[in-house]
Amino acid sequence: MLGVYVQADADFTAQLVYTAPDGSTLTKTLQVAIDRNATAEYPFPDSEIATFAERPTPAVTSGKITKVAKVNGTWLIWFNGEEAYCCTHGANGQPAGCPPYTYVNTSTVSADQCVPGDHYGNQIHIWGGLNQLSLGDADDLPAVFSADEGEEISLLDFCASIYDDVQMYIIENFPESTAAEIYLASADELANGVETYASARGYYTYIYNPGRAGWQTVALIGPEIGEEEPEPEPVVQEYYASWEAPAQTASGSFDFSYGIRTDKIQLKTQEKVDGATIEIEPITKSGSIDGGSWSVSPASKQTVTTSGHTADDNYQKNGGDEAASWSLHYAVTKTSGTRNGRVGPYTSQEAADEAANSARDAALAELQAEAQNAVNAAVSSAKTQLGSLQFRYEEISVPYGFEKYWGSNGSYQTLTVPANSDNEYLMRNAEWSLQVNIRKTDSETGNPIAADACYEIYQWDSVSNKFLAADGYNTYSVQRQGDGSYTVINALSDFVFSAIKAIGAILLGFGIVQIGLALKSHDAGQRAQGFMTFFGGVVIYFAKDILDMIL
């Protein structure tokens, strides 16, 4: 770019703004002062641009389109009540919704292009005219026509290309009527040119630009060109094209599964429990997240009954099992916004249309990406929120010999189940129990018998359907107490807890000794250590009782 040619009769300020493709801008401001006593050398001697004498400016530098009319298939406009001309192909130009216009510069038209008073002919000869005004009625506008293009055609064929069906009916059926003669004469002048008579050099034109994109550039014919003005070049037509990209949609979905396997056991013996009926149900069965919706299937509760005992020596170790599962489906659809724009100027309508198509295709790709990105974000958010679901896990029917248990991992639970998992979830039952104490006495005296008696406990075996003596599966035995009575015990568990209780008693004694020594020596550290040992021994000594209260 060599520079900018400006006509001015007073000092002025100019601001140049460059906008990069990424949207960033660069602004430069020029302060220009005119020195009328100096002669400036033309700054671009090699550009072959001639300097013009000072051109006239209009008395009114702003306005609006005030009227439109269709003449011989061509739209004509009036600006501030004066005959005016459309300069922009395909742009809007009508009084309704017209933005304010501002005068921008003075141009010229040659004498063979402009005839004073010939509004229709000037629009045709200077700016084309047969397809440059958009009024939202595109189907009513014929194609652009130039009398110099194509092969020579007859006057009647030419009339058919510019007149509508009613006008052609008058011409063909009433050729001697006044209306037909006017139509034929106008067509002949349009096809063969109009003889100029008013000015040998042409006329100035005042150019007004709209305050909003998509509207016509408007020209008004000004005074005749003076002798000092160089011969004007013919006006070069500018072509524009509008484009519009509709909203685009994108969709996405995913599926999760949630599996629950039961593990039903006895509270004390840890043996498996069959025959327990359990209801399992998702607490929340459907919902919406970021514009998408989800639901689980089946939507109702599932009822299972534990089973799995094996008729062998592992009977008590197997069973208590059952399973249930749910599937979850999430789906979302997102719609982008819309875009539109206008491209130009170009030297042909084909070039403008091609550029508009490219701009529309680029916008469609961006809108599709916008919708897809929104879908991806929604899916990611939903996967995070649905990474686990809560389920009601409740025993509704207790097998014979057991009771519901309300402690930890008891008969009513709320489970948090991770997506795409199939884990076991423990549920305990409180088995029926009784304490058997035997007091061996002399039948005559009623006194306890000093000599030890021997007892054997038989346990019912569900596999063999008979009582089994103490061995292997049957761990019960009879133990004599300090008062001489006998108590039935579970040999394994009682042995473990008896050992733990003994350890607790030892720690209790050791703690008491530490406390006594610390009090004697006034050693605060040893006293604190003694109390800690003492209380630790208490907890260990009563470990079985504490566990019984908790469980």
Topology, please?
Blueprint: E1 12-19, E2 25-32, E3 62-63, E4 65-71, E5 74-79, E6 82-86, E7 88-89, E8 91-92, E9 101-109, H1 119-127, E10 133-134, H2 155-162, H3 165-173, H4 178-192, E11 203-210, E12 218-224, E13 238-245, E14 249-266, E15 277-282, E16 286-289, E17 292-297, E18 302-305, E19 323-335, E20 339-346, H5 349-385, E21 388-397, E22 402-404, E23 412-418, E24 421-431, E25 437-438, E26 459-461, E27 466-468, E28 476-480, E29 486-490, H6 491-521, H7 524-541, H8 543-550
Parallel strand pairs: 7-13, 8-10, 14-24
Antiparallel strand pairs: 1-2, 3-9, 4-5, 5-6, 6-12, 9-11, 11-12, 13-20, 14-19, 15-18, 15-21, 16-17, 17-19, 21-23, 22-24, 25-29, 26-27, 28-29
Helix pairs in contact: 2-4, 3-4, 6-7
What is the gist of this entry?
The chain is an alpha+beta fold and 551 residues long.
Descriptive overview:
- The radius of gyration is 51 Å and the shape is elongated.
- Strand 4 (65-71) and strand 5 (74-79) form a beta hairpin.
- The longest helix has 37 residues, at 349-385.
- By secondary structure, the protein is α+β, with helices and mostly antiparallel strands.
- It is 25% helix and 33% strand.
- The strands form 8 sheets. The chain has a 7-stranded antiparallel β-sheet with strand order 3-9-11-12-6-5-4, covered by helices on one side. A 6-stranded mixed β-sheet has the order 16-17-19-14-24-22.
